[in-house]
Amino acid sequence: ETGVTQTPRHLVMGMTNKKSLKCEQHLGHNAMYWYKQSAKKPLELMFVYNFKEQTENNSVPSRFSPECPNSSHLFLHLHTLQPEDSALYLCASSQGQGPTEAFFGQGTRLTVV
Amino acid sequence: QKEVEQDPGPLSVPEGAIVSLNCTYSNSAFQYFMWYRQYSRKGPELLMYTYSSGNKEDGRFTAQVDKSSKYISLFIRDSQPSDSATYLCAAPGYGGATNKLIFGTGTLLAVQP
Q1: How far apart are CA B105 and CA B7, in angstroms?
Q2: pLDDT exceeds 50 at position B96
Q3: Residue among A6, A97, A102 minimizing CB distance to B98
Q4: What separation in angstroms does the CA of B68 have from each of B25, B56, B65?
Q5: pLDDT tens-digit map of B22-70
Q6: Which of B105, B84, B9, B79 is nearest to B41 (CA)?
Q7: Would you call A43 and B88 a contact, using CB atoms and an 8 Å cutoff?
Q8: Residue B2 pLDDT more than 60?
Q9: Which of B8, B45, B103 is closest, CB to CB, to A43?
Q10: Average pLDDT value for residue range A82-88
């Protein structure tokens, strides 16, 4: 298994749908992240989990709801999204709480119609 | 002002050229800088990092930091078509007990054969 795996790779959903993004890391890391990547914009950090505990919510709208059941799995639950939420959602993991290398998954390309 | 700024490009060069990719940053507390490479439809992967001013070399890649001008650069010698990707500079943000990376927008590089 590769380091950080995200499913699905592509997702198209209506504004009234509920869907979930899944991330799994096989690196033994204790920190996991959700980032949003939109065209022509920097990667935006959304959420940080350290040892399953959420330590950062970067003013993300409540229509995005993260869940971290254990140090290896991270979910992003989506509901009543807007078209401007269409983007590449990247999961990452790292070891430790200091500045360390983040390993990224391949991302989920989300389109909200 | 964005904490890390980067020209989005695109930058197109012929094979074999020397490529210079640049970022500026505003927070003088940053002491650690990273370059990530992101191929199309992939997540970012760490290419190089450097802790302090000066140069760091790894094969055809050289990372340079000038703290006096808050300027970071990535040089690619003998560029290859396989170097075509988006290059993102990043610095770890500080504050609280979390680790997070602050990214530039990324520069899209195309190396023409």
Answers
A1: 7
A2: no
A3: A97
A4: 11, 17, 9
A5: 999 988 888 788 999 999 989 999 999 887 677 899 999 999 999 889 9
A6: B84
A7: yes
A8: yes
A9: B103
A10: 96
pLDDT score recorded for residue B86? 96
A8: preceding bond cis by omega (within 30 degrees):
yes
> What confidence score (pLDDT) does residue B98 get?
46
Is A56 in the B-facing interface, judged by CB distances under 8 Å? yes
Residue B12, both tokens: 């197109």
The DSSP 8-state label assigned to residue B81 in this structure reads: G
Verify whether the Cβ–Cβ distance B43 to A94 is below 8 Å: no
Mean pLDDT, chain B, rounded, equals 89
Contact A110, A11 (CB under 8 A): yes
Instruction: Kindly report the nearest CA distance between residue B43 and chain A, in angstroms.
Output: 4
Q: Which residues contact B106 (CB under 8 A, 6 or more apart)?
A: A42, B6, B8, B38, B86, B87, B88
Give A108 to chain B, closest Cα distance, Å. Answer: 9
Averaged over A13-18, what is the pLDDT? 92
